[in-house]
Specification:
7 strands, Rossmann fold, 23% strand, alpha/beta, 46% helix, two-stranded antiparallel ribbon, 3-stranded parallel sheet
């Protein structure tokens, strides 16, 4: 959820610290129940440790699941807004950091793009379809765009 107060914005997120652990537990508990090919669509902001996530997804790939990973970020996470100052709040610790977006934009963008590229590369190496999307895009529209690209790719 995003709150606007004057010239600052905050991202407040619920605690999903155990999602990957629960996802792995589900794979161990129920993964053997599936005997036919299954399509698994995971929609996440990937704020958890990507190594742990891909380790969990490997269990499903091993069982021949087809996996689509939708990486969802807020538009202000994708590109810092042009505001005089911004409050960043750590979702886990609640620690606050105030900054001027213009001062950190280049470094932030480089690190974020590196992270996105790394996740896309790891997903591709595991034959997991990776799709980056913004919260500005309606979920059905993002899925429709993905399916159109996929259909085009399959025809080639």
């Amino acid at each position: 959820m995003t709150f606007f107060k004057g010239c600052a914005f905050e991202f407040s997120r619920p605690d999903f610290s155990n999602v990957v652990t629960k996802f792995r537990a589900f794979g161990f508990s129920y993964g053997n129940c599936f005997y036919t090919a299954i399509l698994l669509i995971l929609i996440s902001d990937l704020l958890d440790d990507p190594d742990r996530l891909f380790e969990a997804l490997d269990m499903y790939r091993h069982r021949n699941f087809e996996i689509i990973l939708f990486h969802v970020l807020h538009r202000y996470e994708l590109e810092l807004p042009s505001l005089p100052s911004v409050n960043f709040i750590d979702a886990e610790s609640g620690e606050r950091l105030t900054s001027i977006p213009a001062d950190i934009r280049r470094s932030y963008s480089r690190q974020l793009n590196g992270f996105i590229d790394q996740v896309a590369e790891v997903a591709g190496s595991r034959k997991i379809d990776y799709e980056l999307m913004s919260t500005d895009t309606a979920p059905y529209a993002a899925l429709e765009q993905y399916l159109e690209r996929r259909n085009h790719r399959c025809r080639l």
